[in-house]
Structure formats: structure tokens, C-alpha cells
Amino acid sequence: MSDGEGAQNRAGPRAWWALAVLTLLYTMSLMDRLVIALMFTPMKEDLGISDFQLGLMHGLAFALFFVVFGMILGWASDRYSRRWLIFVGVSIWSVATAFCGLAATIWQLVLARFAVGAGEAALNPSAYSILSDEFPPAKRGLAFSVYGAGSHAGVASSLLLGGLLFGLLPRHFDMPFVGEVANWQGIFIFLGLPGILIGCLIWTLRDPPRRECLDEAKPDWREALAFAKGRWRFLTGHFLGFALLSAMANGYSAWTPSYLVRNFHLTLGEAATMMASISVAFGILGTIVSGIVADRMMAKGRQDAHVLLFAIIAAVQIVILTLAALAPSIVLLAICQAVFVFLTGFTGVAVAAIQLTTPNQYRGQISAAYLFVFSLLGYGVGPTLIGAIATYGFADDLKLGWAIAVEGWILLPIAVIALASAMRPMRSAMSDALEWRATL
């Protein structure tokens, strides 16, 4: 490698600071999004709702607005200030999270979750675009994996902070300017309101010049659609495969706290601590390691590394989820969970594959299309399907572990097939990308 090539493959301090700020915001978004799962038990008692309704509220209510606004804001991220889009989105989802704490009925909670989804839809398309402009191609796998690790940090934060507040707050208490609230309502308020201040960190970043734009192309949705049609085999396999992995991961994270409480008689705080510890120790590590492995596989000539790696991992997850359902003790269950969480570090690798094969002017729109499928299946189907299996399939509160495993038996074989089908098209897309990148 020449000195010039080495310089082009390095990222400066400004790039790493952008990565740190955006990862923090992503962590906060996942915390606000997922803390609801920790409070299923008290919410079920206070609102008198079923597991299926809880799954709908956690998943589909959020996912519907997340995917619809994601498409709109992905289009906007290719045209307008990405910093402003992120700041407004952070402000909306933070206020909406606090409003979840003011809800007294399931429908009020559903409306607040709609707003959380709409606000959070602003972050990823703009963050992906900024990181692609700050980092060279050789570093994007690592950069997006660090950013993706924010998902596990968000899960851990929701469990640790949510569990801590749940233990500190009385079951019902008076809150200034609000009146009497349940402890789960207070948690939403305490976690939501500081978000606007944290969102101001976006103004410490620049909105970098857009790189890797094809001169003859314009950021038009019709041209983005034409580009996607030319990549449909790769994008279909990629979108579906990683979306199903997301559905499994989200279903797991949504229902495992309740599984630990119901079947192993842990307190909510103990369940939260156990899951948070696993997520921090193994989830973040797995996400970063997967990015490093994908980058090294690419360097050795595997142009389909991103989809090949997780086709193999999806097959392994089927076995792990089955063993977890059979685990007779909390120790064996924790080992299975640690392995499963380590293997869910797909977020950064999935995004890197899109960024590497897509010209800059289409990245926001293609990323938004990916997030549409990823979120609709990941957040809409994952938690909801487990709730439906538990409520209508087993009709037994103590069968949650098997409900989680059954979802894996349904979704993960399809994910393996989808990702395997994307291998050859990804090799072709990478070859095309190398050609147009060489002309810039």
C-alpha cells in the first residue's frame, strides 16, 4: 500500500468524534424505545391487557410510524441538513417518551409510541450518510459496527437505568406538575426529558461534504428506484435476511425479562441486571468483532463477506434458542443467552454492505428502504409474534421460553436462505462499486 492509499484509508479525529456522538444518540434512541419491555408486568397489571396486546404496543405501534417516516426522512437526508433532521428527531422522540409516562390507557400509549417511532426515524438515515462521508471504505465496517453496538448499549441502558429507577420509585407516587403516577410511568418521564439536552451534541459535528457521488446522477427518487431495481436480487436477500435477524433479536429482548421473572422467579431488578450485563459484555463485543471479521474477510477477497457471515450465524442461532428453551437452570440459560447475544451483532455489518455498494446520492433513500423492511419485520413482527404464540399457541404464562424458540424455528431458516441468496448478487454489486468508485 502506498503512502497516499494509506492516508486515504485513515479516519481523522473529527470522524471518530462524529462516530462517538452518533453512537451516543443511537444508544439513547434504543433505550427510550426498549425500556417499555422491562415494564410489561406492572403495565399488564395496571392496564389489564394481554401479552399479545403488549407485543403489539411494543412492536407494531412503534414500527408503523418508524417505517413510514423513515422513508420520508431518508429522502430528506439526501437533500437537506442532516444535523437539523437529527436534532428535530431527537427532540420529538424524547418528548414522546415522556408522554408515554402520562398515558392512562393503552390507546394513549399507542399514540405516544407512534410519536416515538416518527422521531427516531430521523436518526439512522442521516447518521449512516454522515458516517459514510467521514470514514473511508476500508474503515466503514468497523465504524458501522461501533455505531451498531449502540443498540446493545441501548438495551443495557434501558435495563440498568429502568431497573434502577424501578427499584427506587414506589409503586405509586406524586410527581410535581403531573400528580399521582405509577412507577413505570415515572420511568418514561425521567428517561425521556433529558434527551433534548443530549441531542444538542449534534451541533458539535459538521455536516460533512457528500462524497462518492456520481457526477451524472441527481438525488431523485426515480433514479434511486432505478438503481434499486438493478440491485434487486442483492437488496431483497439482504433486506429480508437481516430484517428477520432483527425480528428474532427484538423478540428476544422484549420478552426475556418477563421469561426470567415468570419461569426463574427473578425480581424485575435481577432480570434487568442479568440481561444488561450480558448485553454489555457480549452484545457490544459481538457487534464490533463481526465488523472486524467482515472487514478482514473483504480484505482477503470475500466480496460477499457481510451476508455470508450472518447466513452462518443465523443457522447457529436456531440451535442456541432451542438449547435456551431446554435449559433447566438459570446458569445454563445465561450461557445460552450470552452466546445468542454475541451472535446478534449484525447491525453495523448490514449497514456497511449497503453503504459500500451504493453511491452517496442514493444512500439515504436506499438506507430508508432497508430500515422500512428491517423495522417493519424487526419491531413489528418480532415482539408481536412471540406474544401471539404465547397467548394463542401455548395459552400458558410459563411457556414464554418455548414461544421465543418457536419464533426462531420459523424466522431463522428463512433468514439463512435469504442471506445465502444475496451472496452472488453482492459480489456483483461490489464489483460495480469498485468500478464507479475508481472514476471519482
From TrEMBL:
One matching Pfam family: MFS_1
The keyword Transport belongs to this UniProt entry's keyword annotation: yes
Gene Ontology cellular component terms for the protein in this record: membrane
Keywords, comma-separated and alphabetical: Membrane, Transmembrane, Transmembrane helix, Transport
One function term, GO molecular function aspect: transmembrane transporter activity
InterPro entries: MFS (IPR011701), MFS_dom (IPR020846), MFS_spinster-like (IPR044770), MFS_trans_sf (IPR036259)
UniProt name for this protein: MFS transporter
Organism encoding this protein: Sphingomonas crocodyli
